[in-house]
Amino acid sequence: TRVAILISGRGSNMIALIEAARAPDYPAEIVLVLSNRPEAGGLAYAAAAGIPARAIDHKAYPTRETFDAALQAELDAVGIELVCLAGFMRIFSAGFVEAWAGRMINIHPSLLPLFRGTRTHEQALEAGVRLHGCTVHFVIPELDAGPIIAQAAVPVLSGDDPDSLAARILVQEHRLYPAALALVAGGKARLEGDRVVFDADVA
Ligand code: GRF
Predict the structure, then answer these.
(1) If you ran DSSP here, which 8-state letter would residue 109 be given?
(2) How far apart, in Å, do the first and last CA atoms of the chain sit?
(3) What is the band of 97 on the pLDDT scale with cuts at 50, 70, 90?
(4) Spatial separation of the C-alpha atoms in residues 21 and 24, rounded to whole Å
(5) 12 in ligand 1 pocket by Cβ < 6 Å?
(6) CB atoms within 10 A of CB 39
(7) In angstroms, rounded to a whole number, what is the distance separating the alpha carbons of residues 101 and 18?
(8) At 102, is the secondary structure helix, strand, or coil?
(9) Among 5, 10, 12, 30, which is best to mutate for testing ligand 1, by the most ligand atoms less than 8 A from CB?
């Protein structure tokens, strides 16, 4: 499966996906990295790994729709079959998301449906939860609300602050995302309507 990864920053999840996809039997090939921010650190890593990496600066487009159309053209030009959002900090138009229904996934640093949106570790500490974590889900127009593919949980420890919690979860994100992409790219998890259907042998 031909995969594009969309980033906005350092791209630590992109790195985890690129490294996992080096395995000869991995069911996806990372063939493109796009960033909405030209200064995203992840672009250099992707280029060094020999993966075409380009910035499509959202500030260069007058509307959300024209930016999304520019993204769509880049994805179509290289026959992308599946899109992975990894620290991508833009909200898409509903039309763009619906065109990629079942073929666009995202990682969110909380146990959805808890703590949608940003500053999820602050939300978790404020709520006093003892378990927190990360979620990989299919992307739908509603933010952070798509059908769930995989999750990983970590304990919230006394003395945790947002940074210590984020660091503990990031370790899990870098394990969870490659595993979740392999399920979807390998056809073992797929979107049917608003539900994820798994092969019988998937945990
Ligand atoms: C991570 O917490 C990820 O869950 C969220 O953005 C943060 C940074 O991701 N989407 P990355 O290091 O840019 O992949």
Answers:
(1) S
(2) 22
(3) very high
(4) 8
(5) yes
(6) 10
(7) 23
(8) coil
(9) 12
Angle among Cα 55, 179, 118 to the nearest 5 degrees reads 55
| 35-67: pLDDT as tens digits | 999 999 999 999 999 999 999 999 999 999 999
Q: Give the residue, by CA position, lying nearest to ligand 1 atom 13.
A: 11
- Reported as a single tens digit per residue, the pLDDT across 147-184 is 999 999 999 999 999 999 999 999 999 999 999 999 99
- 54 close to 31: Cβ distance less than 8 angstroms: no
Asked if 76 and 85 touch (Cβ cutoff 8 Å), the reply is no
pLDDT band at 2 (very low <50, low <70, confident <90, very high): very high
d(C-alpha 100, C-alpha 140), whole Å: 9
Q: Is 91 helix (H, G, I), strand (E, B) or coil?
A: coil
DSSP state of 158: T
Q: For the whole prediction, is pTM greater than 0.90? A: yes
Chain centre distance of CA 19: 15
